[in-house]
Design goal:
mainly beta; single chain; four-stranded antiparallel beta sheet; 119 residues
Length: 119
């Protein structure tokens, strides 16, 4: 059974930093491209950052230059380092892993971790 557990969220003032972690169990992430998503109150869930198996990264325009996604395959963990946080970064942050079997896929999500940035 694949499980994702996020941690590291909290309350921080604008300009502050947080580091989120996503520990995956039940499968190796080494061949996968995990991502971080967030959902603000009243808004749809959006992609924040993703990282390929080769280490290539993609970021939403709103977080470029401030967020850094990384991975530790040995620890089966994905990280999201967030600096210069803004109130607009407030939301629940989720880790997602997509497992492909041929042309079919299954998405696994964590339970989320709350990030609140005060002005």
């Amino acid at each position: 059974q694949v499980q994702l557990v996020e941690s590291g969220g909290g309350l921080v003032q604008a300009g502050g930093s947080l580091r989120l972690s996503c520990v995956v169990s039940g499968k190796s992430i080494s061949d996968d491209a995990p991502g971080w998503y967030r959902q603000a109150p009243g808004k749809q869930r959006e992609l924040v950052a993703a990282i390929t198996s080769g280490g290539g990264t993609h970021y939403a325009d709103s977080v470029k230059g401030r967020f850094t996604i990384s991975r530790d395959n040995a620890a089966n963990t994905v990280y999201l380092q967030m600096i210069s946080l803004k109130p607009d970064d407030t939301g629940i942050y989720y880790c997602k892993l997509r497992e492909w079997v041929g042309v079919l896929f299954t998405d696994y999500w964590g339970q989320g971790t709350q990030v609140t940035v005060s002005s």
